Amino acid sequence: MRSELWIWIAALLLTMVAAPAAAQSIYLTAPPEPNAVTVMGRGDGKADDGPAIQRAIDQAADKGGGGIVFLPSGTYRISKTLFLWPGVRIFGVGAQRPVILLGANTPGFQRGLSNMLIFAGARERDPATPGRVPFPPPGSVPFNPNIADANPGTFYSALSNIDFRIGPGNPAAAAIRFHAAQHAYVSHAEFDIGSGLAGLYHVANYAEKLVFRGGRYGILAEKTSPAWPFALVDATFEGQRDAAIREHEAGLTMVNVSFRDTPVGVEIDRGYGDWLWGQQLRFENVSRAAVLISNENNVYTQVGFQDVVAANTPTFARFRESGRSVTGKGRAYRVSSFTYGLTLPSIGEMGAYRTQFSAEAIAELPRRIAPAIRPLPPVADWVDVRALGAKGDDKTDDTAAIQRAIDGHRVVYFPSGFYHVSDTLRLRAESVLIGLHPSLTQIILPDRTAGFHGVGPPKALVQSAAGGDNLVVGLGLNTNGVNPRATALLWTAGASSLVADVKFQGGHGTNLFDGTRVSPYNGNQTGDPEPARRWDGQYASLWVTKGGGGTFANIWSPSTFGHPGIYISDTETPGRIIQASVEHHVRTEIGLNRVANWELLAPQTEGEAGESGDAVALEIRNSRNILVANLHAYRVTRTRKAASAAVTLYDSHDIRFRNVHVNGESGVGTCDDAGCFTFLRLTKFPFENAIHDVTRGVEVRERQFAVLDVKGDAPPPAAATFDGSRVERLADGFHSLGGAAVGPDGTLYFVDRRAQRIYAWSDARRLEIVRDQPLDPVNLAADRSGNLMVLSASGPGGTVYSFKPGSPDGELALIEATPGTARTDAAIALPANWWANGEFRDQLDTRTYRFRTLAEIFAAEIGAPNARQYVSPDGSLMLPAYRTVVQGPPDFRAMRFSHALDTYGLVTAEAGGRVLVTNASENKTYSGLVDTTGAVTDLKVFADRGGESVAAGPDGRVYVANGQVFVHASDGRQLGRIDVPDRPLQLIFGGAERNILYVLTHHALYAVRWP
């Protein structure tokens, strides 16, 4: 208690002392950037310079595709929120870092949440324009409802070399609302927060070289806008009053971060987990806990640290719910490893929750390590490639001019422009290439360039020097789509080399010279708009090979033409990736072959529906000593094809997985006549398994886990069974099964979505096709008379029709949605599995600074009454008419999402009775009370497992599908497990006695029987 009091006093004194001296600038002079806009403000700390800064940002954005703004040295007082538009980057320039100042007691920054600067999602909408902006960011001063929040499509925005200072009397102030997506970053900034709330509210993909002083928090964050990891590198926190970082689900990945003089280093919010990873961390005088862990028995809570030192930090980890703690090793100690979460004993086994802590006392803390990210050379050393003859005009062949510049100068700077080349640019051992904006500054290989055709070894657009000390920063590299021998960056440089803020252009997020965005698809998303541009028709976009290594930070590699997006081969030179978005490839996103001594930190992959149906997120072959931490392997909700595993292994060992997140969910913010809302969607086709060890023939069914070491010598685990159960394969060869229902006689009916067929199975009649019509059936329900209600994805918002099995093929009856009425005698069909996690909408209560929990979000979603309903022909069954979101043109190409369409199947319950459902966003199974509209209330956690399906058996036991089939007693206690050859997706009891557990997987139908 005494130490916390002194920390509080020290923080208070920080708010009272004179403002710190301006920090050393990294851009001592403005780079030679003719297209930059320079802020024309006073910079004296007295005049209100906010309008001048905003005018410069607006002017840069007017150029199309973003722009560059320079803020000269000075102190710039603001009185209102600044908005940084998409694609605009603002850099401080001059001998001293410029400071953006919020003066004492600035009106509007005293209550709730108020942001000095907001990363916005779009320019301000004209108030006279009809319609609404979905979810304008809260905390603008004054509040502006006509500005959209940043979102997963907000690319390239950045802020660097600018400090922020919050004066006294602004307790609600946060310096930056940092909400954006790829290639958005904040770097080289110091935040003197004083009595304010936070330096950063929300986080995006990447930040480095930040210092946070004072404040209630340094960083206050929830899930990132695109819902994948955030990397924080080379940062310092000191003197925060409550916690240095308070966050949840941010995928927080830290490298070389220091915490001192604060009660808590990292606090995970109540009711939430996070994929939290940290290495080379330092804790000094952290009184309560280095890390405060919440939501303990949940797969989304994955915490890991390695190579950490601490002093005067008596408790390393504290657990919120249980109250237990992990104590440090004396006054000073070193933590070689700490992990908490679902831990897999070996590959192929299911997990259990474990805490592992390996630490030892040390005499004193060592000196702080060198930065993980090398500094750039001073601007005085930069040589303007245009001054040496390059044009960058999107038409001139600049090959010779650029190569002369590289041959004659160590540091070559590329002002914004599109630089066409026709041959490989070869770096010397010490060469440095620099740009400030990888969308506005591109090196481009035009389609059909001579020398890049035919069959042959890879030919690079840019090639490093073997063993060199090269840096490539801030550039876009574009090999286009008709250059089959091309690889954008062939990297053989050494362990100290650096590639950072580089975008491999092509496909998604690619802007043209005029600022317009490239469309990556033809009309039905089966290829590029130009037929000659072949997906998967080039070598890797980034290829590290032949002894190459180094650091690769803030990389975006989404070119559909490359295979893979990042490829590392034939090297044992140490290398490290820190935050890479690798997306939209046809077969492999990231590949390793014959590699050792590498770390992949916060790698994120995204499989798109059009091109990535067969792609794996990560393939590792013939490799060893690899760390993969905070892997986020994601498939979009538009996906309509199953894929076996996110990660494939071939003959590899000593592969250490820490914090693995394999999913397929998303959300959209939209508006209609009823208002603006967030709709959360769950694809039925995430990767079925996290890992497939092809060599050993073993799968990892857990898709969320904290720890797995692949050692290479573990025998395959034996299949588990329960109570003498026997698993029988009934039929296979399907594409994507689901939507099952059982008729009054016990016959099982189910859908193969791709084939658009409805099947029946009974032991007497075996497999039958009961309907084969192009009506896009998704989910089924059976009424008491044996009529099947069919929920179809066709029609404006989905359609419901019914037919009697065995009736003529042409007979069906459309069922219109009608206003809801109380039907106490009708069963109610409900989604068995849900997804609701509040994505896209801030969950912070600005009165209490408490976040609404996942459980509360789920309860609000599932407990909402339904105004309309579909009623079966005999009136004995009702399906609520859930709100449907339509994406795409209003025809068969559109994607339709609703809770009823997205679930693997429906369950039925009586009004006034209880029903079991799963919430995949928490991985929990709930029991709830059903009302006459289908709303489910009085939720109670039944089991800490829940994913695809849940079924109550006639024996009173409950069966949950989550990788395997888990068996629970009626009170929720886990009793055992039944292993199935394929991942179970829907469970339903059928047969004449309702004593057969049918298990639907994507490709096969199984039955579990008991003696």
3D structure, described in words:
With 1011 residues, the chain is mostly beta strands. It has 3 domains: 1-218, Single-stranded right-handed beta-helix, Pectin lyase-like (Pectate Lyase C-like); 404-710, Single-stranded right-handed beta-helix, Pectin lyase-like (Pectate Lyase C-like), CATH 2.160.20.10; 726-1009, Neuraminidase (6 Propeller), CATH 2.120.10. Helix content is 5%, strand content 46%. The strands form 11 sheets. The protein has a 24-stranded mixed β-sheet that branches. A hairpin with a 5-residue loop joins β75 (964-968) and β76 (974-978). The N and C termini lie far apart (62 Å). Mean pLDDT is 93; it is low at 1-18.
Mean pLDDT across residues: 93
Q: How many alpha or pi helices?
A: 5
Number of discrete domains: 3
Provide the CATH architecture of the largest domain: 3 Solenoid
Number of strands: 79
* Fraction of residues in β-strands: over 45%
Q: What's the CATH C level of the largest domain?
A: Mainly Beta
Low-confidence stretches: 1-18
Q: Classify the fold: give the CATH topology of the largest domain.
A: Pectate Lyase C-like
Helix content range? under 10%
| CA-CA gap between termini | 62 Å
Gyration radius (Cα, Å) is 29 Å
**What overall form do the CA principal axes indicate?**
globular
* Major β-sheet profile: 24 strands, mixed
Oligomer: single chain
Assign the CATH superfamily of the largest domain. Single-stranded right-handed beta-helix, Pectin lyase-like
